[in-house]
Glutamate--tRNA ligase (Ollibium composti), 457 residues
Amino acid sequence: MTVTVRFAPSPTGRIHIGNARTALFNWLFAQKHRGRFIQRFDDTDVARSKQEYADSILYDLHWLGIFQDATEYQSKRFDHYDAAVERLKAAGVLYPCYETPEELDLRRKVRRTRGLPPVYGREALALTSAQIAEYEGDGRRPHWRFLLPNFVSDPLEPMRTEIRWNDLVRGEETVDLASVSDPVLVREDGTYLYTLPSVVDDIDMGISHVIRGDDHVTNTGVQIALFQALGAVPPGFGHHNLLTTVSGEGLSKRTGALSIQGLREDGIEAMAVASLAVLIGTSESVHAMPTMAELADHFDPAATSKSAAKFDPDELLVLNRALLHHMAFADARDRLGALGIGGERAEPFWNAVRGNLDRLSDAAQWWKIVNEGPQETSELSDEDRDFVRIAFDLLPEDPWDAGVWKAWTAKVRKMTERKGKALFMPLRLALTGLSSGPELADLLPLMGREGTLARRP
Ligand code: GLU
């Protein structure tokens, strides 16, 4: 069996790191099993879905390193859902209901006071054709419910009916079909809720594993029954824990919280986002994986905890630094070029500064310092200024090599008897304008003798 997974967001906003977690779980699962990854846009809600959001989701996924084998839109597949509706009706497992939301609400309350579970009582099954004609005459349109197979012969006498599956993440799972209402599959206006199109697509697209957030666990019980009603073998399922903010709130596409776009624009590396999105809330320690292949090696859905995982954006910066510190020039070259950092000094420059960067774009500031001199004026005491002047007079002659800093400071130490911080700090301030930064031994050859002399106070 070819492993085939899908990531199925509704294109109603930009995706956030929690959505990326679902996408990555699917992607890495497919990678591990040499399977296929299908992008499905759940856009049956045509009023709220927008192509621009679908495009932005594709852009964000590509940025993260996720590439689809196929892209499908539910809005182009209504005829498949209509056909499934006809099959379910013909099988007698899709029935019309005429209750208004207020009537349903009242019924739920009554059931509660009677100590019954607040599920739909299937009253519509008892409607006579005269009653139906009356509703229709009043202009009421039906919504359609799927009759869950939780009874022996009388649907009005449901009984405990366990649907079981071995969840890729959570292990043995059970949903009792008597504890849930017959789901509405089609609304009064003929539009589809998510349940039926999702199952029809999973069947048609040969989905072998459905991997999604654990807010769908109960849906899975219902969906397995629907797969069976449509004559299909249900796929495997995996439900990962959800991410929350540090204060425990859920992430929402609508609020734009921690959108992938926002993180990208903030200079966070794609692999920092991917590493955290995948490893947080698992028994693996969270550390920066430089490539998707390495992340795949550390990915184990069964190592995911069942409780929600708190997501702290500050952790992203820690991972970002770690990735930049080890990033090879070849992997940074193009983006450095876009910042105006090029030529033959670009590689030694990158190797000199990468250990001091929070974000790759911070390199631009160091490029300026190296080429133009300090960008901030540093206050040197009179004594330090005199020391720096003497030191500059001792600068070795050209040509300079990688050992120039060592040779220079040895000479300065000997002549001035300064050492340690008293020696380095005034030189660092004079050369860069800052009290910390990359090794001066690496920066000095990049500045060159002329450039260095121009910084003489
Ligand atoms: N559109 C659904 C959602 O975003 C898909 C759930 C699923 O993967 O089945 O919740």
Notes: The chain has a mean pLDDT of 95. The radius of gyration is 32 Å.
